[in-house]
Design brief:
Elements: H1 26-39, H2 43-55
């Protein structure tokens, strides 16, 4: 039997399965992308870190 292709399943408790959405104006999106690039992070990682910090 051939092994399954793709990313292996993550263990329970590690999976992120809730999606929060927001729309940005083009100038706002540019600011977000610039901040992500400055921090040298992935966009989702940066947004998650920033929102959780603000939520505290």
């Amino acid at each position: 039997m051939k092994p399954k292709m793709g990313r292996p399943k993550l263990p329970k408790g590690v999976v992120k399965d809730v999606l929060l959405g927001a729309k940005f104006a083009p100038d706002e999106a540019k600011k977000v992308h610039a901040a992500v690039k400055r921090e040298n992070m992935g966009k989702s990682e940066w947004i998650r870190k920033t929102l959780l910090s603000a939520a505290r």
